[in-house]
Amino acid sequence: MKYLKIVSVTCYGVNSTATYPGAIWDGDTGDRDSDLGILRAPNARDWGRVVNEIAALQRSLQGYDPNRSIDNHGTVASVTGLSVREYGNGAAHKTILTLDEVEVSTLDGTTPATHAAWGTKNLYTFPEGHVLILASHQVYPVGGLEARDGGGAGIKDTAELEIGVGSVARGDAGNFDLHTVTTNDDIVPLHVAAALTGGASTAIESSPAAAASFIDGSASAVVAKLNVCSATDGTDHGPLPDVLKVSGTITIVWTIQGND
Fold first, then answer.
1. Rounded to whole angstroms, what are the CA distances from 48 to 29, 41, 43?
2. Beta bridge partners of 131
3. Distance (Å, whole) CA 133 – CA 253
4. Phi first, then psi: what are they for 252, rounded to 5°?
5. Residue 71 CB neighbours (<10 A)
6. Radius of gyration of the chain (CA)
7. Residue 71 φ/ψ, nearest 5 degrees
8. Mean pLDDT over residues 209-219, rounded?
C-alpha cells in the first residue's frame, strides 16, 4: 500500500482584504495560490478579493491611500451646496470643489471709510503636513456671485468685490485689498473687483495661480477658506450684515511634502 506524504502546506490570506496600494496584489486569495496556476472557476473568496482590490485601485485614483495619512486626500467641510471630487495618487492630488449657492456671511468694516466689508467660509482641510500648492484656479459663471439681500443696507447692488482662497480667514482689517494679508489668498489668488449689477455678477469671474506656493501645516492641518472683501467699503456695503451666495468651481492641485 502506498501512502501520500504531505511535504508542505501553504497558507493564503484568510479573508478578502485588499493589499493595494500598500502592496501589489499577486492574485492570491483565501483559496487560491496564483503560483500553482489553478484553473478552476473562481469561488466567493476569489470574487471578494477581486472586488476589493478593484475598489482599492479606484480609491487610489481619487487620491486615497489608507496606509499613509500624508498621502491621503483632505476633508471637505460640511457646508450646504459644497461638494468635492478627488483625483490623483499618493504623490499628487487634484481637488475640485463645486459650490452651488454656498453662503458667505458678510459684515461691514468697523470703520467703513478705512475698513473693508468682509466674509469668510471654511471649504476644505488638507492632511496635516507641509502643503505644496502646485496649481490652482477659481471660476464663477455669470450670476455666480449674488447678494442675498442687496439694496443699500447690506451688499450694494453695484458692489465690487475681491474673492480668493487662503489659509487664514479674512477679518476686519484696515484695507480694501484681500492680498494685503497674503495668507488670505495663498491657495487660490484673489480675483480683483468682481463687479455686481443688480446685486449679481454679470460676467464670468476667474483667476488662476501664476506660481506654486508652500504652506506649513505641520503643527496643525491647513484649512482652505473662501475669503471675500469689498474693494471700496463706503460704496460696496452698507451697515447691515448680508450674505454673498457663491456658485462656481475651485480647483487645487497639491501634494504633501512630508510632516514633522
1. 9, 14, 9
2. 215, 256
3. 6
4. -130, 125
5. 21
6. 26
7. -95, 0
8. 94
Residues 157/174, Cβ–Cβ less than 8 Å? no
**Which amino acid is residue 134, in one-letter code?**
L
Name the helix (H) or strand (E) containing 58. helix 44-61
pLDDT 10s digits, 74-127: 999 999 999 999 988 777 899 999 999 999 999 998 888 889 999 999 999 999
> 195 vs 24, which has greater pLDDT?
195
For residue 78, give the amino acid letter: S
228-260 pLDDT, tens digit per residue, is 998 876 688 888 899 999 999 999 999 999 888
Contacts of 198 (CB under 8 A, 6+ apart): 150, 157
Give strand pairing partners of 90. none
Q: Amino acid letter at 121?
A: K
What grid cell was written down for 177? 485689498
What is the amino acid identity at position 66?
P
